[in-house]
Amino acid sequence: MYTIQSKKMKQFIIPVLSSSLFLASCGGGDSESLTDLKAQQAELKTQLSEISTKISKLEGDSAKKFTLVEAGVLTPAIFKTYINVQGRVDAEESVSLSSEMPGTITKINVKTGEQVVKGQVLAETDARALQQSISDLQTNAELVNQLYEKQKALWEQKIGTEVQFLQAKTQKESMEKKLATLQEQVRMTKIISPINGTVDAVDIKLGQLTAPGMPAIRVINFNNLKLKADLAESYASRVHKGAEVIIKFPDSNDSLNSYISYSSRAINTLNRTFGVEIALDDKKEYHPNQIAIININDYKSAKPVISIPLNYIQKDLKGTPFVLLADGKKAAKRMVTLGKEYNGRVEITQGLSETDLLIMSGYDGLNDGDAIEIKK
């Protein structure tokens, strides 16, 4: 509170003027001196009267107490709330390849960082024994095939028996199946990429023994990355496909705006969560398993509304929320209805408008109707 004090000034001035009047009345004896002193006395009385008037005015002003406050206008805007979760970058196509046949590594055709295409042979194991078996089998297959062709020609001319023809046909088909089996085994000695991508790791060396299940080469398609996150079951009704998200990558100090591309409808029975996915732009460089902070928009007001910081809200004895407004030179109490809260702000659904002037500081201890002065 600001007050103006004048009692000390009055207590100081009046004795001084009284002393001057007393000295003037005790002056010399001649009439001329007395006349001058009386003139001075009259002038001093006039000054005393003027000073008393000013003091009375100041004393009247000092009785008017006020509180210095800061106030501001209210601007409606779309109010949004977000769910904050941690997610990770995941590659839609990421494979760790191993040999399908035990053997010794004889060829490594790629290096880390190379681009590969689907069907490309990345490495090979020793297949000499199988190749020799195929060579021997192919020689026998040629003979069996010739016998079959001749027996078939004779049978078409009604020469020979049906049994001889069927035996030749069976031998031919059996030889073809054996040959196909050996060729498939040769294929299994090769490590082949099933996707287009980049070689992210080569964990084998020439001459190294390998077996099915042992990591050999990892290939990742970095053009098809996405963010994955798990949310609590309680958010299931508030998060849907197409919801707006704000993504922040703490390690790279990067951020972007996107949308949920998939929201699972199944709840995990072990941890009571459901998963969401967000497609990432392949124009930027992201790393599989990289951590990201995801803010998912779960509420958006239908139209612009007024929102204010939570600390501006006060409550009366009944627990009803209210704020203080600047109404000219007085504080005015206004009851409000609160909506959603987020990040230290609250949505005001009823009670405030754009024309109101909200008291933003100096409201502590201020009551409805108290005198105020707004800081310029």
Kindly describe this structure.
The protein has helices at about 5-25, 30-60, 130-155, 160-190, and strands at about 65-75, 80-90, 95, 105-110, 115, 120-125, 190, 195-200, 210, 215-220, 225-230, 245-250, 255-260, 260-265, 275-280, 290-300, 305-310, 315, 320-325, 330-335, 335-340, 345-350, 355-360, 370-375. It has about 375 residues and is an alpha+beta fold. Among the domains are: about 5-60; about 65-80 and about 305-375, conserved putative lor/sdh protein from methanococcus maripaludis s2 fold (Beta Barrel); about 125-190. It has a seven-stranded antiparallel β-sheet, with no helix packed on it. Strands 3-10-8-5 form a four-stranded antiparallel β-sheet, with no helix packed on it. Strands 7-6-4-9 form a four-stranded antiparallel β-sheet. Helix 1 runs antiparallel to helix 2 and helix 3 packs antiparallel against helix 4 (about 160-190). The longest helix has about 30 residues, at about 30-60. About 15% of the residues are buried. The model is unreliable at about 1-25 (pLDDT under 50).
